[in-house]
Amino acid sequence: MIGVDWGTSNFRAFRLASDGSIVGRRSSARGILQVEPGGFAEALENEIGEWLSEGEEHVLLCGMVGSRQGWVEAEYLACPAGADELAAAVVGVPFDRAEVRLVPGMKSRDADGVPEVMRGEETQVAGLLDTCSDDALLCLPGTHSKWVRLHGGKVAGFTTSMTGEVYRALRKHTILGRSMVAGDVDREAFLHGVERAATAGGLLHHLFGVRTLGLMDELRAEASAGYLSGLLIGHEVGSEMPKGAQVHLVGDEALCSLYRIAIEACGGSATIEDEDAAARGLTVVARRMGWI
Amino acid sequence: MIGVDWGTSNFRAFRLASDGSIVGRRSSARGILQVEPGGFAEALENEIGEWLSEGEEHVLLCGMVGSRQGWVEAEYLACPAGADELAAAVVGVPFDRAEVRLVPGMKSRDADGVPEVMRGEETQVAGLLDTCSDDALLCLPGTHSKWVRLHGGKVAGFTTSMTGEVYRALRKHTILGRSMVAGDVDREAFLHGVERAATAGGLLHHLFGVRTLGLMDELRAEASAGYLSGLLIGHEVGSEMPKGAQVHLVGDEALCSLYRIAIEACGGSATIEDEDAAARGLTVVARRMGWI
Q: For the whole model, what pTM was predicted?
């Protein structure tokens, strides 16, 4: 079978053997924003047509391709839900050359009753339901970071922090970005930012320090972006992580390693899961569907 | 004499009688970013030349015109400092047709030792030193909101929150702005945002609710910008205001009235000072200089 994680900015396909092992990969920048309405079938054909010609008959999609801006809109599945519920809720997608189904996203409410949604992350999490302990906490950092609570082999609930998107907006569109230079994250400055996030005063106040520390020559231009990143991730971890938690990090390895620094500085501990969580989750759901 | 509050985006001049009353006003969008290096004398002449022709001989400037990007850079004055210290530290500015001086900004350190700076707000505050109680708390909301602590007739210290600039960056350059429509701030939605800011979870999490509430039809597009504003100002007030404080609000009246709603919702009380704080402060400093 073929599994596809089709997000806003990227297309990632995996050719999967019946034991779940990845026997082929394709990826491109053809995220859903790069596909014209009505052009999804052709886009899919272009990306994985070769595998279809070689006999693959089943394609399972997950991610923003199931949103209103995607191919077919799939209603969010309410938490608590696990792999069985995801498999039972897949949505059919019209396509000539293969059977195509789409894994729905999930919805939840936070402690204050405010809605939460995710698309794509639920599938990455599904790949970890069997291996995590019964009450595990997962963090999927990124544009919209997700903190996902598992209970009894299901997703019990989750919350989102806009950390990645806020970082980019602040860096590109406020005075803070003016003094920054491109380059690797300065890990020492990142940790200073994380530590600062734990002090008195809120994020809106801490942000101004990025400017004043630069102005007073107490923060180098090369270290400024790392410090800002530490401030934001420090605030996220400080708000979202229960004291002393053990966190499973899922996603881009470089970003996960920064989150691990922040989690440890805040008194928690973290393990970084392998990067193919989406492929594993697609396999888990496909198995419930009887596809493999 | 003539007092000028010359900021990043705006130029505001006041013609002041010896009793401090305002007998003339001029303002334009000729902030320092609209003035070429070397063009400040000409810009000032264009704005207030008429008053100079009528015999005015003294001009006192405050604001970002004293920054590195301005006309003449004035070093920040360290807190604690009051009107006497400001008057003693004014900086001379070369200008043919009148005697021109510039009020310096102030610097401080927050509880964590991180630097704080302001330019222009110190003059607005100077105008209130005589009328406020001995231990007063002032808030000057805006792009970079200032919370200023007075003690013994001086500025004891202050902190900055980047609330206004973050609001604009989020509204213009993140997914949150996509669903927003222009118009007046919806006061009910603003208050909901303030109340949400006081609940569990951090700002980065609360921000995502602007999107999900809209997605689930629980927040109207017309109310979305007000809710975001309430979230940000609620977080600022929650972090910066000591419990039950009495706050003097200084600045744009519409913005001050939103801050008053947030301050009262957070258990404090607020009075809105009149909008001519800069003119009053320039008078107070000029009096110490023997100009009036």
A: 0.95
Respond yes or no on whether the N-terminal peptide bond of residue B80 is cis (omega within 30° of 0): yes
B205 to A239: CB separation less than 8 angstroms, yes or no: yes
Q: Nearest chain A residue to B205 by CA: give it.
A: A161
Give the H/E segment covering residue A79: none
Cα–Cα dist A246/B223, whole Å:
39
Backbone phi and psi for residue A260, each to the nearest 5 degrees, phi listed first: -65, -40
**Beta strand pairing call for B91-93 and B137-140:** unpaired
Give per-residue pLDDT as tens, A94-131. 999 999 999 999 999 999 999 999 999 999 999 999 88
Can you state the angle between helices B221-240 and B163-173, rounded to 10 degrees? 150
Residue A159 with chain B: CB contacts under 8 Å = 201, 205
Structure tokens at A198: 């734990």
Q: Is the model's pLDDT at A84 over the cut of 90?
A: yes
Coil, helix or strand at residue A195:
helix
Q: Nearest chain A residue to B235 by CA: give it.
A: A202
Residue in this structure with the two tokens 């419930």, named with its chain if needed: A288
Q: Are B204 and A199 inside 8 Å of each other by CB?
A: no
Q: What is the pLDDT of residue B108?
A: 97
- Token couple for B128: 């209130």
What is the b/e burial string over A213-227, where b = at least 16 CB atoms within 10 angstroms of the residue's CB?
Answer: bbbeeebeeebbbbb
Q: Quick check: A166 and B170 CB within 8 A?
A: yes
> Would you state the structure tokens that stand for residue A278, as one six-digit string?
């989406």
Peptide bond into A80 cis (omega under 30): yes
Confidence of residue A243 (pLDDT cuts 50, 70, 90): very high
CB atoms within 10 A of CB B177: 17
